[in-house]
Specification:
globular; alpha/beta; TIM Barrel; binds the ligand O=c1ccn([C@@H]2O[C@H](COP(=O)(O)O)[C@@H](O)[C@H]2O)c(=O)[nH]1; about 300 residues
Length: about 300
């Protein structure tokens, strides 16, 4: 890793890792995915329009408030609505903050550094109406190509989740390449180095209180991959966003075996398994509570 001077968060702003750790301690390790698939809008009796998208989004937000640590809107499902879709995302970010929910924009951005600056400004910049608490990033143009986002997140007290071991089976064909020196292991090592640069994260135990702001995406479906690839996620000292719980088949009771000693760092994401319970607000809230309870039981 090249030497890059550490930049502390802006004065007065608590770093994302600390804010997420506190939210997980208070509400448990559930991140509710906001994935307004067209078929879900149909099932909810909502039109496939920006207004349908808005009603879906705000209903999920209300059901999650007080019962989950974070919301993760899937940006791809807002983009087909153009400017109106982005306006709904902007509203979500404002309302979530008022409701005490952290936000992770699942945008999976990654590009050459100069373009990355623009993506960083859009999703993490103080001036941007689309600024979330954290954004997902793709490291496949090289981890260091993400530098503008990593540095801007650190300056603004926001966070990043870098794809390491994704929940889809196809991910193995790239991420597992190299065996004990795998692509995934190099992403994990780079995230660990990133978190070690900031005082208050390096050298502490991998408890929620000591979480850094550079997180990873590690699917709940990866089975024994961490052991097979020799990856120790406690060394990353960052939060682990774990999609795959729920609709993709991973169960809460399997998570301790998947994540081992890093279980306390896991923020499990679930979208369709919860969203299928709508549009009834009480049923949706009950689905959120049930998932939150299962995960708290499994991961603490
Ligand atoms: O490895 C990854 C990275 C991101 N995702 C996203 O999470 C949700 C999962 O939705 P479910 O309905 O709970 O399956 C979705 O937005 C994916 O794009 C992922 O699944 N795996």
């Amino acid at each position: 890793m090249p030497e890059v001077p550490a930049r502390p968060p802006a004065p007065g702003r608590t770093p994302f890792g600390s804010r997420l750790g506190a939210a997980m301690d208070e509400h448990g390790p559930l991140c509710v995915g906001v994935d307004p698939h067209p078929v879900l809008l149909d099932a909810w009796g909502l039109p496939r329009t920006a207004e349908g998208l808005r009603r879906f989004t705000l209903t999920v937000l209300e059901a999650a408030a007080g019962h989950a640590a974070a919301l993760k809107p899937q940006v791809a499902l807002y983009e087909p609505y153009g400017a109106a879709g982005f306006a709904v995302l902007e509203e979500l970010f404002v309302q979530a903050r008022s409701a005490g929910l952290l936000t992770v924009a699942d945008a999976k951005r990654g590009d050459i550094g100069s373009t990355m600056e623009a993506y960083a400004a859009a999703w993490l910049g103080e001036e941007s109406p689309l600024a979330a608490d954290a954004v997902t990033l793709s490291p496949y143009l090289g981890f260091e190509s993400l530098r503008p986002a990593l540095d801007l997140a650190a300056r603004t007290g926001r966070g990043t989740f870098v794809l390491a071991l994704t929940s889809n089976p196809e991910g193995r064909s790239v991420q597992h390449v190299g065996g004990r020196e795998s692509v995934a292991a190099s992403v994990c090592a780079a995230a660990a180095a990133e978190n070690a640069r900031f005082p208050g994260t390096g050298g502490q135990p991998a408890a929620r209180a000591g979480l850094g702001s550079c997180g990873l995406v590690v699917g709940a479906t990866v089975g024994r991959a961490l052991t097979e690839l020799g990856i120790d996620l406690t060394a990353v000292r960052g939060p682990l966003l774990a999609p795959g719980y729920g609709a993709q088949g991973a169960r809460a009771e399997e998570l301790p075996a998947v994540f081992g000693a890093a279980g306390g760092q896991v923020l499990a994401a679930s979208s369709r398994a919860i969203l299928r319970r709508g549009p009834d607000a009480a049923a949706l809230r009950e689905a959120v509570r049930r998932s939150a309870g299962e995960l708290a039981g499994a991961l603490g």
